[in-house]
Specification:
Blueprint (H helix, E strand, L loop, with lengths): L10 H10 L6 H6 L1 H20 L2 H5 L5
């Protein structure tokens, strides 16, 4: 079974993921470090998936399925 390629996270998702992690490194320093870069990108992809599931109009309409 082939894995689907996940899209690269956008800058906003990367910055949010960096903020969620407990690191003293700045965003640029963390993205230059190979290990932190993988961790931040992985967390950013998860954030993007959660962001897609959030439907503001559905919540505003109080449409609970």
């Amino acid at each position: 079974m082939a894995r689907t390629k996940t899209p690269e996270p956008d800058l906003a998702a990367l910055e949010i993921a960096h903020g969620l992690l407990a690191t003293r490194l700045s965003f640029q320093e963390a993205m230059n470090h190979p290990t932190w870069k993988v961790v931040i990108k992985t967390r950013a992809r998860k954030h993007m998936q959660q962001r897609e599931q959030f439907d503001l109009k559905k919540l505003q309409a109080n449409d609970n399925d």
